[in-house]
């Protein structure tokens, strides 16, 4: 569950989003590089208690916000190092790197809410990030392909078109496209987004099979397939900067 709230401190306002989680035991405040303040709360923590905690941390929050304002990193790339947080279908997983004799090639998978990467033991320490990156990219591409295929099957039926040929790959600054020959291209990094945002992009590109431009007729089709698409479209605009590997 999510809720927006705000407090005043030192003559300024702090807007923040409360994100409740059943699993969480301890509260935490997060200032994100996009200048958003998140309050991660265990289920049941009252809004008043949270306000008090945000107030107590106000100075720290302002300092963080100022730092991000001065050090804006629009395209922050991943470092592929231990403990770094990776998004997958909108959820966050810490990266765990294991050097092991069990693999000949780098391998990525999920285990116990962590993104595990196993790389051959003979990899030298200063060269770890490259095979880790390769493993994560391969794994995410494969997962993205499966998700997109599933969605295309469902929505092609609804739109009454044959399931189109599609490619899932890395596209710079683009989430998807539909060619004149109706070949769909979807950016694999969308697998980092919450499922409904990925779904929106797939629906959007699929509707271009019937309507090539962004006419009122096009948006009507999108709405028929996904009545709440606007919410997910806006969220993708707001949060898309995070889906970078
Ligand atoms: Zn379009």
From TrEMBL:
<feature type="domain" description="YgjP-like metallopeptidase">
    <location>
        <begin position="25"/>
        <end position="238"/>
    </location>
</feature>
<dbReference type="InterPro" id="IPR002725">
    <property type="entry name" value="YgjP-like_metallopeptidase"/>
</dbReference>
<protein>
    <recommendedName>
        <fullName>YgjP-like metallopeptidase domain-containing protein</fullName>
    </recommendedName>
</protein>
<dbReference type="InterPro" id="IPR053136">
    <property type="entry name" value="UTP_pyrophosphatase-like"/>
</dbReference>
<dbReference type="Pfam" id="PF01863">
    <property type="entry name" value="YgjP-like"/>
</dbReference>
